[in-house]
Amino acid sequence: MTEKDKKIIQKIKNNKVGVLATDTLYGLVGSAFSTKAVKNIYDLKKRNPKKPLIVLISEFDDIFDFEIRIDNNVKRFLKKVWPGKISVILTCKSKEFNYIHKGKKSIAFRMPDKKDLRQIIKKTGPIVAPSANLEGQLPAKKISEAKKYFGLKVDFYKNEGKLESKPSTVIKIKDNKIKVLRKGEASIENISNIKLDEKIL
Prior knowledge:
Layout: H1 3-13, E1 18-21, E2 26-31, H2 35-45, E3 54-56, H3 72-81, E4 86-91, H4 98-101, E5 106-110, H5 115-124, E6 127-128, H6 143-150, E7 156-157, E8 169-174, E9 177-182
């Protein structure tokens, strides 16, 4: 781990926000457990306050910190698709995390397919990482584009060159079925309406 990564970890732990490369796009990141950081991200992006955020995790058990309950079928499925560019919406009834799920009682989680990012998250705890752009604008593919959006308003940038990727694929699990809500970077064929207890998974 580089010295810069160590400094970034400390800043995220101290409720700061910045721009990091995820496994898909550059993200505007902050601690998922910091209401201050999350609010700052909404303000910086001018994001619709009713629109929930995706949470990035470093390991499977991180989801349980959000009072998520899943059965063994869902657990087996998640361990097959993670790490990967698939964000999975799971039921979260806890009011404590209303600042993330915005009353929808569900949170989308992703374990990034990017080892160095997972190492950072392992130290900081789960993070939120919406794309680094203003609401309705094009996602930043380069740090220079992110700086045009946010300038000195964020606490750090980490340049990893130009990123060419679609956003993550988003799926929802409900009533033991899978529904694709957004087709993204990960290719999932014939996954809609598959029952999680079927042998195909």
